[in-house]
Structure formats: structure tokens, C-alpha cells
């Protein structure tokens, strides 16, 4: 059977639906921008910035941030056009349905599980590790076997080796955030807004206090000479550094999954997507400038906690605990937005018939896809409680980049198939911008290890089996 397409008219009619059985439209531009910032500013900022500076760029890490932001901007502009045209939950899945057909839409929808669900699992595991460190500072210690997966082990102070049983703190945070989400998008957005304000406050505090301890000599040379190996300083180091910190920016696309809960989405969606990316880019460049000015870039080499190195150059040693607390708080908002995004994608796929109806069943009081939230929480807890972070973490980036490629490709296809359709926001310089987005993302994908590609292929094959056994037969377009 030929590949089936969902018409743009049908999608726009779906976006216009209101009342019982539909998601509540309660998000404005500020709420959408806060959601974007909430997921973009994670602990990656506090770790990858130093690693890139120490190993690849030197003080020119600010140029790497700028390059990575430009790469993301290509995709963000494409997302903004789609989100204004088709303001329904589903993000890249929905856009692919209208431009490349049902099969590709399913592949992207299934692929987004890697970005959102597995991403939430990864963040929850890291949240658990930081929680243990935070309490250890005050002499409170968790039993090691209850904060690790069965595949991990730890050596105690007396030399005994303890094997993990289950990572309980990661399960706790996932269940807590899921319960918040079920109560409604408005409450979730309020909590996310408070968390984002705290996170941005800590970043600004570091920038303002650290600026007084900048030593200008630390900026020389701004671009250290290349060591003779590609990616180790020089201009190639700036490029490699952009690749390392590119993943700090991942998350703005989750704003697109909130389209069906946005007020006046034709205007607020582009503002949310582009606004969150612009604000984070400015903060990241200022953060990198201050950090590399406070300590010489060589002190950050292979250091996953570079902020601690910078803080040691000041009398504000209490900032170390504040930063860990900011990471813990920041991770909560990342998990919240990841879980929101995943449930909204499954909600849309269920409405299309590709997944069982329970994924689109709304709570009678809160009007949220609560059954989907509960099922996803159980699924994600299996990863978070029983898998080590390196396994789940490697799967997230490649899934995200594949979605970016599909969205950029979708803009080119739709401009050719439907050039006269009203577009409240238009991606500029088509096809140049989407082509540059595709090239950028593919370069990032090909830089990832082979085993990451193998996991992606196996994951997509599992998804195809589910589609041909269930989704294709139950699709609304089949009817």
C-alpha cells in the first residue's frame, strides 16, 4: 500500500478543536520560553563548557557556543514555521506526517522516545548521583546498593565491593514529576517557571560574582595553537568544541510539542522556540567568557566539574553547594519537560490510531493524558532504576539529531508541495537554511560512535515491527 499522508487541512482543523476531550490552551509566550529554557539549561552547561575549553578550544569556547547556536538556529527556524502552521501536539512526528507520510511519521515518533523518554531516564540517573553528593557534604550517606543499577558496583572506604540493586532516588524523582504533570499543564508550567527563575538566577550569580575575578592574561592566546591533531585547539578545536557543546542546546524543540496547549500558537510558538534559544545562547556565551577568564583553560582539562575550579579562585566557596543545588533543581525541570513532550507525542500518535487509545485518554478533571503519563513513568523507571547512565545517555543525542534532520527536510518538501499555504511564520532563505540544518545535524550524527548507530537501528527496527503489526492496521487513515 502506498505511503499515507495526513492533510494539512485536517491537521489545522484538529488544532482548532476546543472543549471537552482536548488539551487546555493555557500557555503564553513567556510560559513557552520558560519551558524551552527549562530543558536547555541543564547540568551540561556546568560540565561540558569546561571540558570543551580544556581539551579543544581554550578561551575560544565562546566561539564554539556561537557556532553551536547557529547550527541549532537552522533547525529552530524550521520548527518555528511548522509550529505556526500546524499548532498541534506531536512536534516532528506531526510535521513528518504532513510532508513525508505515515511511515516516516511513525519512525520519527518512535525515534522521539529516544530524545524524551530515554532522555528523562538519563537525567534522573544523573540527578540521583548529584543528590548523593549533595547530602554527603552534610555527612548524610545513602546505602550504595540502592543508588546504582545492577550493572554497577562501588568500592567502599574499607575496601569492600558493593553491587547495585536499584537506583531508588531516580525512581523517586520520576514518580514525583509525573504526579505534577498529571495535575495539569498550568501547574506544571508554574513549577517549571519557578525552577527556571532559580536556575537562571544561579547562572547570573556566577557570571556577576565571577566577573570581578577575571584575569585578562587568561584570555591569551584566545585561540591556542593547534597541537598538530585535529580538534585539539586552533580553528579545528573551535569546530570540535562546537560539536562537544552542541548537545547543551538540545531541548528547544520540546516547545513544539506544547502547541496544542498554547494560546494564539501562530504567534506564541515561534516566540517560544526562537526566544528560548536566543536567551540561552546569550547566557552561555557570558558564562563561558567568565569561566575561562577566572582560571587558565589548562586547569579545565578533562574536568567534569569546571565551575568548582573557577570558584576556588574566589572567596565564595559556598557557591560549590549552590551550584550542585542548582543542578538538582535544573534537572527537575529537564525531566518535567521531557515527560511532558513524550506524553504529548504519544497523545497525538494515539489520536491518529497508531497507538492504543489509552495514550490519548484524558483525565476527567485535569484534562491531561494521565494514562499515558503513568505508562511512560513505569517504562522510564525500568531504564532509570536498572540501567547504567552510559548506556541510556548515548542513545539520546542521535535520536534528537535525526528528528532535526526530518524537520528541516520537511520544510523543503512542503514549500515545494504547498507553496501557497498561509504561513504565519516563514523560515527565511529556503532551501538554504534547512539544507544547512541538515548538513550540520548529519555531521554531528556521523561524529557519534558506531555502537550508538547500532542501537538506533535496532530501536527503529523494533518500532517498524510494532507499526506493521499494529499501527498500520489501526491507523485512522486506513479507515
Largest sheet: 2 strands, antiparallel
Please state the CA-atom Rg, rounded to the nearest Å: 22 Å
Strand order of the largest sheet: 1-2
Question: What is the CATH topology?
Answer: Amino acid/polyamine transporter I
Net shape: globular
Structural class: mainly alpha
The SSE order reads HHHHHHEEHHHHHHHHHH
Low-confidence stretches: none
Name of the CATH first level? Mainly Alpha
Percent of residues in helices comes to: 55-70%
Overall average pLDDT: 84
Distance between the termini: 14 Å
Number of helical runs? 16
Strand content: under 5%
Q: In total, how many domains does the architecture comprise? A: 1
Work out the number of β strands.
2
CATH architecture: Up-down Bundle
CATH superfamily: Amino acid/polyamine transporter I
Q: Mind sketching the topology for me?
A:
Elements: H1 8-16, H2 29-40, H3 44-57, H4 61-85, H5 92-99, H6 102-136, E1 153-155, E2 161-163, H7 168-182, H8 185-211, H9 234-245, H10 265-294, H11 306-311, H12 319-351, H13 370-386, H14 389-417, H15 432-446, H16 450-474
Antiparallel strand pairs: 1-2
Helix pairs in contact: 2-8, 2-10, 2-12, 3-9, 3-10, 4-9, 4-10, 4-14, 4-15, 5-6, 5-14, 6-7, 6-12, 6-13, 6-14, 6-16, 7-12, 7-13, 8-10, 8-12, 12-13, 14-15, 14-16
Give an overview of the whole structure.
By secondary structure, this protein is an all-alpha fold. It has a single domain, classed as Amino acid/polyamine transporter I, CATH 1.20.1740. 65% of the residues lie in helices and 1% in strands. The chain contains 16 helices and 2 strands. It has helices at residues 8-16, 29-40, 44-57, 61-85, 92-99, 102-136, 168-182, 185-211, 234-245, 265-294, 306-311, 319-351, 370-386, 389-417, 432-446, 450-474, and strands at residues 153-155, 161-163. It has a two-stranded antiparallel sheet. A hairpin with a 5-residue loop joins strand 1 (153-155) and strand 2. It is globular, with a radius of gyration of 22 Å. The model has no long low-confidence stretch (mean pLDDT 84).
